[in-house]
Amino acid sequence: MFPKSTQAQFWMFENEGDLNILRSKTNVAYIESHKNEAPAGAGDGHFLTEQDEADVVFYFSVKMGEFCDKFKPPMPSYVKGTSSHYFKRFYLHNSVMNYHPKEILVTAVYLACKVEEFNVSMQQFIANVQGNQERATKIILNNELLLMQELQFHLTVHNPFRAVEGLLIDIKTRCDSVHSVDSFRPEIQTFLDSVFLTDACMIYAPSQIALAAVIHAASRQKQNLDSYVTESLFGEQGEEACVRNIRVMVKNIPDPTPNIKTLCTRLEQCRNQDNNPDSLAYKRKLEELVDEDALLLEDHTPSNQQARMDSLECRQR
User: Fold this and answer.
1) DSSP state of 232
2) I want to staple 107 with a disulfide (CB 3.0 to 4.6 A). Which of 143, 157, 228, 300 is the partner?
3) d(Cα 187, Cα 228) in Å, to the nearest integer?
4) Long-range contact pairs involving 215-219 (C-beta distance under 8 Å, separation at least 24)
5) Selection from 194, 223, 207, 205 nearest residue 164 by Cα
6) In sequence order, what DSSP letters do the residues of 32-59 get, joined into one string?
7) Predicted local distance difference test score (pLDDT) of residue 238
8) Which residues touch 181 (CB under 8 Å, ≥6 apart)?
9) Are 72 and 127 in contact (CB under 8 A)?
């Protein structure tokens, strides 16, 4: 299923370099289209750099994980995984200066709950959000369609969790030298939580990520899966390079930048005010949309349609 999925066809890339090229183009495009809004003398320093954006996205990716872990009722891991996919995909083609991550974060999680059929009402969902819950509800509802559009309506996500279960069953069946396989689970979960903080899910297949997680957990438990990997999975090739690369990506996850408060302050200054729910520009845009909807509704009312038909008949006479 995965090789023919929209995930494989549209959201998988060769390496991190390809992803960074897209992010760089997104950053440059935003600055070019909004450079006239910068204060006099500020220049490009008014805007966030590509690295600044990466630091902000990473920080809010960590916050997304914390939000999902604390969610009540307890959230399944696959919902958390799907949320992470949506969040990362969105910021390939959208700048954090255009859409603030704290708003896309909750929208991504809410959409993932619906797509993965984790049935929680809006009231239950919003109860997990700190701060003004009425405002959060409006933000989610206003951004939900935007998020789906930016995902190109490719909402089905293949996570590594099913592949993990298949590998554990296979190890129990075919690898007598490995004991207490279920004891791997906590380490596997920790590893997968870390994977979603990297770009691995947009470079490697779910089955490869699952194998990397199982091998990592086994090594932490002082158990050796080399014979299983060599004899049962890859023949004489041994551990695939992709598995090693995934483990290296997890090992090299950086700490959140210490100047995140400064970055968030700068973000508030250079963000697109048309997409800032607290700005007058945003409120004016909503009012214009409401007025347009009202006109469309008025044009389609039976009385107006009949009036236009009567007018047409009079002209024909």
Assistant:
1) I
2) 143
3) 19
4) 215/239, 215/243, 215/247, 216/187, 216/188, 216/191, 216/247, 216/250, 217/184, 217/185, 217/186, 217/187, 217/188, 217/191, 218/178, 218/184
5) 207
6) HHHGGGSPTTTGGGGSPPHHHHHHHHHH
7) 45
8) 168, 171, 172
9) yes
Residue type at position 117? E
Q: Helix 161-174 vs helix 206-220: angle between axes, to the nearest 10 degrees?
A: 50
Continuous segment of H or E residues that includes residue 90: helix 77-93
Q: Rounded distance, CA 225 to CA 218, Å?
A: 7
Neighbours of 158 (CB within 10 A): 22
Q: What's the mean pLDDT in 193-198? A: 96
Note whether 188 and 217 are within 8 A (CB). Answer: yes
- b vs e for 199-220, b when ≥16 Cβ sit within 10 Å of the residue's Cβ? bbbbbbbbbbbbbbbbbbbbee
State yes or no: pLDDT of 263 exceeds 60: yes
The Cα-based distances of 197 to 26, 116, 120, 251 in angstroms read: 20, 20, 25, 11
**Cα dihedral sign, 247-197-147-27:** negative
